[in-house]
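Here is a protein:
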Amino acid sequence: MRTLLLSFPLVALAACTMGPDYAGPAGARAPQPPAAFVRAPSEARAETPAVADWWTQLSDPVLDALEAKALAANPNVAIAQASLRQARSALRLEKANGAPNANLQAIYAHASLPGIDLGSSDGSGEGNANGGGGGTEALNFYNLGFDASWEVDLWGGRRRSVEAARAQLEAAEASVADAQVSLTAEVAQAYANLRDRQQRIRLSQDAVTRQHDLVALVRQRRERGAASDLDVEQQADQLEQLQASLLPLQAEHDAYLNALAVLVGEAPGSVDQLLATPAAIPLPSAGTAIGDPAALLKRRPDVRAAERQYAAATAKIGVAEAARFPSVSFAGVLGIGGTQPEDVVDLDKLATIALPRLSWNILDFGRNAARVEQAKGGQDEAAARYRGAVLKALQDGEDALSRYGARLRASASVRRSLASARRVEALARQRFEAGTGSKIELLQAERSRLSAEQSLSQADGALSADFAGLQKALGLGWR
């Protein structure tokens, strides 16, 4: 009955949990998001976008294969996943730390002590009656048993540790998702830029061919006295400029090949064969779903990670505050043993020890108070980081929408310019075939059309890359 009466206060105390209870991200005083994006283009839809595999909207099987390979083999994702495994193990460890410890032990001890009578080792009971003879006595000791210990979580410090570890695990899960979001956007952007460079290299080579023909025609005209040396030099200079413009395009093409190889976790050159054949730039559909700012904040992995870190920092205050109060622990030893080997199976030789322990560091010179203040400072820092993550997410979304809308308008303008250049080329060709226009005029019209096609390729590549950037800003691409 006495044991039961004593246990009631301990049970009541064990229900106490020090430190503030986490009340959600509202405690961080983050700004409330607006009801709708203020920079959204008219082409955007307010529907909630799909979280994963947004790149399938571009309908490019090669891109789909690259994205799948990158998600499976990229080192940055592997780093985040390894951190996640560590966080899972840390949570299991914190849970296990609240359980009793038990150790099984077997002991054999041999003591040889000169001048001390330990009694007869043969069981005769004869020994040195004076207890201090000049001989040497030996003692063998055998023991088999186990010991156990358990600290009562009176003030909830252990529970707060588990709470903090669980929040950090969830933050690590969000960090894996954040790595996937960044990776999928980078792969799509590099792929769009690569296809753009391939198109522009081909168009530049066509323009160089036509400029060669134009230089040859101007030289023929000079020989007939219909053109001057200045005309020839001007066209030759145009040829040199076109040839020179191919060099940076080729270098950028190779750089994007290298980037894609590394993003999929392989050495540069490994994807060259897969991407050797030029292909069209994958373009998004006319409208894209963007949702609203509140859904963006719930979806963005970096915001979720920051919120979970804030929750973990809040729990750590309770850990620090619980350390300021007394701790109660229980230890026990149960063993069987004696001076003979057979004693380890003799239940008559059973020995038990119970050791309740109360500990309270009442003179710590402010150490625990400093730890509490340190934990509160950590909570304030985590709250500020969360507010910053919210603001950054809202800014990223608005910036990406503004850029994407501008790219849509620029792409439409370039398409109109290309349509005009094609009409000019058609008219020049009609004049040439009718004998009322020159071959030089036709070549110049073809070169202008090729230049407009290069501008369109550049605009489409930027549009596709900005579409990928928009998906990243919206927090899409994680599984």
Remarks:
- The longest strand covers residues 136-152.
